[in-house]
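Dear colleagues,

I hope this message finds you well. In preparation for our joint manuscript, I am sending the Penicillin binding protein (Faecalimonas umbilicata) sequence together with its predicted structure, so that both groups work from identical material. I would be grateful if you could confirm receipt.
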Amino acid sequence: MSILLMNPQNGEILAMVNVPEFNLNDPFTLTEEFLAVNAEKQPAADAKDPEKKQELLNQMWRNRCINDTYEPGSTFKIITSSACLEAGVVKLDDTFQCPGYRMVEDRKIRCHKVGGHGTETFVQGVQNSCNPVFIDIGLRLGVDKFCEYFKQFGLLDLTGVDLPGEAGTIMHKKENIGAVELATMSFGQSFQITPVQMATTVSSLINGGVRVTPHFGMGIVDREGEKLEPFSYPERKGVVSKETSATMRTILESVVAEGSGKNAYIEGYRIGGKTATSQTLPRSANKYISSFIGFAPADNPQILGMAVIHDPQGIYYGGTIAAPVIRDIFDNILPYMGIERGPVSETKEEE
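The corresponding C-alpha cells are as follows:
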C-alpha cells in the first residue's frame, strides 16, 4: 500500500508512506513483512545470496509513490472529465446508454456493472464510474485533443518532486493511438503514471487550475527554528479554467455523497473523490490495484489524500477498501488542521 497526503493549493507533501516499510536506522536488514509479501516472487532463501539480497534491498527501499508507475484506472476519469468539459464536448446533463459494454471496432469493452447502468447523465456516469460513458466522451474528444490535454495537464513531464528517482509517464506514441487505445485510456488503462503525478495533476484540476510542484522542503531554518530562507517552487496557471475546476469539485463531491465513493463520506465534512479498481498486467493473472483519491473541504480543498493498494486479497474494489482508508485519515487530520465540521444535511440525518 502507498499513501500520499498533500496540500493541493501549493504542493506541500504532508505525509507519504509505503507498506511494507523498513527501519531507517537499520536499512540493510530485510524486514519479515517485506519478505512475506515478496515470498512468491523471491523466496526468503534468496536473502542469503549477496547479489540477490541487494536486489531485495533495492526493492524494499523503493518509494512506490515516486519511483514506480501504475495504471491509474478510474481515478483518471477525473482527468478525462476535466479535458472533455474544458473542450466543450460534454455537458452535465448529456445522457448516455450503458448496456454493460461498448463495442469499439471489433473489441467488446466491458463496464464493471455486468447488466449495465441503463440511461444515465454524464454526472451519474462519473458517480457510477461507468466505462461506456467515458469511452463515449473520450471518442468525442478525439486523439489529437486527448494528447493535447494530456500534455497541457503536465502528465508527460516529471512533477519535479524534491526526492530522487522519479519515474516518468509510460504513454503510447500519438501515431499508435487508435480507437481502442483511446477508449481504454479514457478510463485510465493502457498507460502508466506515478501516484505523485496523479495526485499533482488532480490537485491542479480542483484548485482553480494551477499546476503546483509537489515538495517536502519548505525552507532553511537556524538552530532556534527561525526561518532563514523559504523555498519557492514553480507554478503554472491556466491548466483548466476556474469554471471547469469548480464544476469538477461539485461532481466529485457528488461521487462521495451519492456514488461509488460513499465509503469516504464523513458526517459534517464536504468530501470529494473518485474510486478506482484497475487490473494489472498480465490481465490473465487476475490481480488488481485498488485506489481512492479524495480531497476536503470540497468547496475549498486544503488536503488531498490518495491510497493505492497493490494486489488486495479478497474484495478488491477501490470504493470498498481504499475509500475507507482516506476517510479514516481525514477523520483524524481535518480537526487537527482546524477544519470544522459543518451542519449535517437533512438527508443524511434521515438515513
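For the figure legend, we might mention the following. The radius of gyration is 21 Å. Residues 79 and 302 are 19 Å apart (CA to CA).

With kind regards,
E.M.
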